[in-house]
């Protein structure tokens, strides 16, 4: 029997999502930007998918949601647009983020540093989260953007997004959150928190790979990352990927329906597994408080057992797991999140997600 335990990397596409997508491959295949009926026939389905995304994160009518190829593109767009709009063409020169963001945020920040941008990488506490007062202490009058993930992809720890958002609003600083590991797993309400920009990706909540979105509060201006057409109101050029847009809409609808019930069910399974591991294996610990962690995630360490070696044995036993971020899974260096929370070098090589 095969056991898949790597849903933070990607999820199986829900059969209902596949069913919703299929007609747009071979029946309603027209380019939606064409004026003939073959193209315009897909417009209601695109509009429905947008409405499903609005409902999934409780976006307001004045807000905008733009489809992208993935959250990596969304994150790049935010950071590079802020650089262009507020740093190159403005009087700002500073971005605040954390040490344990997804590589698509950290690598883009490193790129911007080469362009002269000052970036502050905030440390996390022993629970693996950045505290709101720490964010506040590093914001200056030159800060253009604060970018903090909603939930960590390796530990599942949930960050104090509401408090950070309030601070950014008070300081007049744009606030972006990579919510890839939050949407569809825990409640995400963009009207309950002050957030200007939010990234998400369909394949994290049983939608197809290759489609993501960027939420933009009050439809504020962002310099496009991609040029060449008038798609998405000129914000993101390229022929719309209608089947995947439909799939993302359906997936977020399914993921956010009865979410509290789903969370409780998954958390119970997580806790049962975690308890069994901790009770059975010696010198073992998990990272982060269960009550402040996404219900589907465990990051466990067993001292003296190298993570990569354990993954090899698990794989031979038909169990799929990970040492951390799937985007950096071939990197055999010590787990950066484990190092950030203060684990020694030996222990930082043992983490299994």
Account of the protein in words:
This protein is α/β, with parallel strands linked by helices and 353 residues long. It folds into two domains: 3-12 and 258-349, Alpha-Beta Complex (Aspartate Aminotransferase, domain 1); 15-256, 3-Layer(aba) Sandwich (Aspartate Aminotransferase, domain 2), CATH 3.40.640.10. Helix content is 37%, strand content 13%. It has twelve helices and eleven strands. The protein has helices at residues 15-21, 23-26, 37-40, 43-57, 71-88, 103-114, 132-138, 161-171, 242-256, 259-280, 307-316, 336-340; strands at 3-4, 64-68, 94-98, 118-122, 143-147, 174-178, 197-201, 212-216, 284-286, 300-302, 319-320. A seven-stranded mixed sheet has the order 2-8-7-6-5-3-4, sandwiched between helices. The chain has a two-stranded parallel ribbon with strand order 1-11. Strands 9-10 form a two-stranded antiparallel sheet. Helix 5 runs parallel beside helix 6 (103-114). The two termini are 20 Å apart. The mean pLDDT is 92.
